Amino acid sequence: MRNTWIICRRELSAYFTSPVAYVFIVIFLALAGGLTFFFGNWLERGQADLQVFFIYHPYLYLFLIPAVGMRLWAEERKSGTMEFLMTLPISTGQAVIGKFVAAWIFAGIALLLTFPIWVTVNFLGNPDNGVIVTAYVGSWLMAGGFLALSASVSALTKNQVVAFVLAAVLGFVFLMSGVEIVQAFFRAWAPPKFVDSVAELSFLTNFGDLSQGVIDVRDILFFASVIGVALFINTAIVEIKKSA
Amino acid sequence: MDRLLEINGLTKKFGPITAVDNISFSVDRGEVLGFLGPNGAGKSTTMKMATGYLSPTSGNITVCGSDVRRNPIEIKRRIGYLPEGAPLYGDMTPHSLLNFVSDVRKLSREDRRRGIEQAVESLHLERVLHQPIETLSKGYKRRVGLAQAIIHDPDVLVLDEPTDGLDPNQKHEVRELLDRMSSTKAIIISTHILEEVDAVCSRAIIISQGRIVADQMPSQLEERSRFHNAVGIRITPDNAEKCMSILHDISEVRSVEQVIQSSGLSELVAFPHNGGDIIGPVRSALDQNGLMVDEMFVEKGRLEDVFRNLTIGGAPNESGDDTGGVGVQEVANHA
Ligand SMILES: Nc1ncnc2c1ncn2[C@@H]1O[C@H](COP(=O)(O)OP(=O)(O)OP(=O)(O)O)[C@@H](O)[C@H]1O
Ligand SMILES: [Mg+2]
User: Fold this and answer.
1) Same-domain pairing of B14 and B112
2) SS3 state of residue A177
3) CA distance B307 to B324
4) What is the pLDDT of residues B81-127, one digit of tens each?
5) Cβ atoms of residues B198 and B223 within 8 Å
6) In Å, how far from its chain's centre is CA B134?
């Protein structure tokens, strides 16, 4: 636990000593805001909620989270610091979780920095703030899901570009498995039970309820399990790759 | 004697490549073991396994009595390790890196203060303490790598080319540091600088193609050189010819070579039979002939020469543990 926190702290300070963090945050905020105002016609809708803000988050994360996650292990392997890190008295699991949590906190900070839109909606009307908080938490959980996938993929390669592309593709699979086209594809040949369970794996489906303020334990469990399983695989990949 | 590191039948294969091939040795407290061998011999691979980074294909490693595979965290606590090329987080400063390592190593407030203070002082890091590591020169990076390896006063110190890239003053200081620490630790260093072996190591292992081809004290290794007890003579070129023929006529001298011509003097080397002592006969022969030499000295033996003989020419002998004078005989006579 203590080691995990030490790793996490180091990683977090690394984010903020490099310009990457600031670039990421600015782009995230610009895109999140831009999509909401221009594509979501947020102001014209005349409704005091953040539906159109959250609706774009899955797509934003699809590309932006791999950009955060790609360096987690790929960079460590490329620069050789993995050897330094893994010969310190810490377990692989502690390193994996520490790095993940740092990146997740970083994503959380970017998300929190969208608070002006929340302030605005409260200024203009009377939104249900409970719904908004739930949606924020759901969004952060989903970011964690994308991030855990990106982190494990990042452990597969020394090349950050490869890590980015693989993570985006993997994220896309998880994102889209609930969409009608994909469902139709499976429905053509697979039993209905299977089709349903594919839909269950979808980030979109699971984020859908949360983003509308519906707290469904299954959605929360879903993202928690994606994170857990992905980090478990991440640990295994790191172990295998370092011993090879 | 305290056996701090023991390696038994260690083998590492990378697919078809056998990087380390059935290596066994041990290091006691108080020893400084020099790890020598040509590029790609398997020095770094052995160190990576000893420090618990790579898993061996087969064989056992015991550090301070614990098995590396069974207690990886425990042994990592007891080891200080400088990996090849000193990879460190470039975004950190030496100050933050040393604190990070002290945190991970759970040093008490007092140990941390002393550990960092001593490491910074003995490696002269004061000037760069708050500069990002990625902007440091190669030598300073190496020194930060060394500092993080010693702050917790480990029992076992594994240093992969610790003096690579250091200036002569720093090399000297690092050797002194190793010397100071050696009595309480087991130290392994790999190096391509053979003089370093003489300067700091109490024992040297030469590996070639993944196998140990020699495991001896530096002085014993030197004795395996054809230069061991050879007599070097510097003389004016006019007299070189004459001197050469005098040396040839001494029965104890096996052969004579003209090595180089430097600063206007000729240098001759007279080799003995089987490393025997020939300085007496040589001196009296020269005296009898009234030949003045500018300089005369006895060679201890040249590690470089031993190294070359042991590591050039394909795989080492099948017989493995060759303690005889490999290579000395066949190379000796082409004068
Ligand atoms: N990850 C790896 N995958 C495949 N082969 C490897 C790997 N690491 C090392 N090797 C091979 O193992 C052999 C030993 O390499 P090692 O780095 O141990 O040599 P070394 O003695 O440290 O050499 P140097 O003096 O150049 O540092 C080399 O042939 C190298 O190519
Ligand atoms: Mg090496």
Assistant:
1) yes
2) coil
3) 14
4) 999 999 999 999 999 999 999 999 999 999 999 999 999 999 999 99
5) no
6) 28
Distances (CA, A) of B5 to B27, B84, B198, B205, B276: 5, 20, 22, 14, 37
Asked whether the beta carbons of residue A87 and residue B92 sit closer than 8 angstroms, the reply is: no
Sheet harboring B203-208: ordered strands across? Answer: B79-82, B156-160, B186-190, B32-36, B203-208, B211-216
More confident residue, B260 or B158: B158
d(CA B198, CA B164): 16
Separation of B17 CA from ligand 1 center, angstroms? 9
Residue position matching structure tokens 């997740």: A104
Strands (DSSP E) found in chain B: 3-14, 17-28, 32-36, 58-63, 66-67, 79-82, 156-160, 186-190, 203-208, 211-216, 231-235, 253-262, 265-272, 295-298
Asked whether residue B101 is domain-assigned, the answer is: yes
Count other C-beta atoms under 10 Å from residue A32's C-beta. 22
- pTM of this structure: 0.87
Question: How many domains are contained in chain B?
Answer: 2
Instruction: Give the total residue count for chain B.
Output: 335
Task: Looking at the CA of residue B20, tell me the nearest atom of ligand 1.
Answer: 14
Distance, in Å, from the CA atom of B259 to the CA atom of B240, rounded to the nearest integer, reads: 11
* Ligand 1 pocket check for B204: Cβ under 6 Å: no
Residue B221 lies inside a defined structural domain of this protein: no
Q: Scan for tokens 């500069």, then name that residue.
A: B131
User: Which position has the token pair 């000593």?
Assistant: A17
For residue A176, give the 3-state DSSP assignment. helix
Q: Which two tokens stand for residue B21?
A: 């091939």
Structural domain including B69 reads 3-216
CA distance B103 to A59: 39
* Closest ligand 1 atom number to CA of residue B42: 18
Q: What total of structural domains would you count in chain A?
A: 1
* Whether residues B74 and B207 fall in one domain: yes
8 Å CB contact of A80 and B14: no
What gap in Å lies between CA A219 and CA A58, rounded to an integer?
Answer: 15
| Domain region containing A58 | 2-242
Whether residue B188 is found in the same domain as residue B283: no
Q: Is B223 inside any structural domain?
A: no
CATH code of the domain covering residue B51: 3.40.50.300
Higher pLDDT, B87 or A48: B87
Q: Calculate ∠ Cα A183-A188-A193, nearest 5°.
A: 65
Q: What single-letter DSSP state applies at residue B56?
A: P
- Name the residue among A80, A82, A87 with its Cβ closest to that of B51: A87
Q: What is the dihedral of CA B252, B255, B260, B264, to 10 degrees?
A: 50
